[in-house]
Amino acid sequence: MTDSIPSFEVELADSGDGLTIAVRGGGMTKVYALAGREQGDFLQFHAELARDFGTRPPEQPVAKSADGDDPPWRPLLTENIHPKILSGYGDPAVIRTPQGYYLVATSNDALDAFPLLHSDDLDQWLHVGFAFAEGKAPEWVAHGLRHGDFWAPEMARVGDEYWLVYTARDRSLVLSIGLARAPSPEGPWADLGRPLLTGGVIDGHLFVDDDGERYLLWKEDRNGIWPRKLAAFLAERPELID
After folding, report:
1. Secondary structure element (H or E) that encloses residue 191, with its range
2. DSSP 156-190
3. Is the pLDDT of residue 65 over 60?
């Protein structure tokens, strides 16, 4: 016999800078007041939700393997290292360069978009800037608190420069993939000035072949893999399948 899947009713309301969330389920109702709309506010909400309704808490220890050994991995970052990094380190991408490792991550609607971190050893990280600091966002994107979306950046070495592909909304709020270039992972980053690809597309990935040829892979924004471009690419280059 399997347990039934719990169901909840949720009502959301604005409350100035924050939110009020009413949750009904299991014969009881709880109302939660969020002081703001940042990551920390929602972490607190999910912690209280777990306490009251038994849902999964926002942070859980990683389960050990059957023989009791720890899994063969370790976290790169466990705390925020700069006060202007407002959305944590979602969708992190790391590139190795002759000058060490660089990490870039999602920044959502933060005014400083795409934090850039450097490390010599993948252990100690230093914040070195933003791809698009406040006031430097590309002209074609929608940006600003509760308005912009800067997601899933990835960096690649292309010839003598670095390219950054990323997801953002254009001025009509259509999800698009942008491209910026820089002489170094620390910038300065110069945007292409227009979307590289548009029409509800996200999660761009830039692949540079050994011969210098460049390929862009992406997906449609419906949480399903869009395999047609990848399938066509592999049909042309079957030696890459392995």
Report:
1. strand 190-191
2. EEETTEEEEEEEEEBTT--EEEEEEEESSTT---E
3. no
193-202 contact pairs (CB < 8 A, 24+): 193/138, 193/139, 193/140, 194/140, 195/140, 195/170, 196/165, 198/170, 198/174, 199/174, 200/174, 200/175, 201/167, 201/175, 201/176, 201/177, 202/151, 202/152, 202/167, 202/175, 202/177
CB 203 within 8 A of CB 219: yes
Q: What is the pLDDT of residues 179-200, one digit of tens each?
A: 999 999 999 999 999 999 999 8
Residue 161: CB atoms within 10 Å:
12
Backbone phi and psi for residue 239, each to the nearest 5 degrees, phi listed first:
-65, -15
How far, CA to CA in Å, does 10 sit from each of 37, 43, 49, 143? 17, 17, 12, 28
pTM assigned to the model: 0.67
β-strand partners of 220:
201
Quote the CA–CA distance of 17 and 196 in Å, as a whole number. Answer: 34
Where are the extended beta strands (E) located within 46-139? 93-97, 100-104, 113-119, 126-132
pLDDT tens, position by position, 103-120: 999 999 999 999 999 999
Residue type, 102: Y
The pLDDT confidence band at residue 93, using thresholds 50, 70 and 90, is very high
Sign of the four-CA dihedral 138, 140, 141, 144: positive
Residues 6+ apart with CB under 8 A from 64: 70, 71
- Give the C-alpha separation, 54 to 87, whole Å: 26
Q: What count of other Cβ atoms lies within 10 Å of the Cβ of residue 76?
A: 15
Residue type, 32: Y
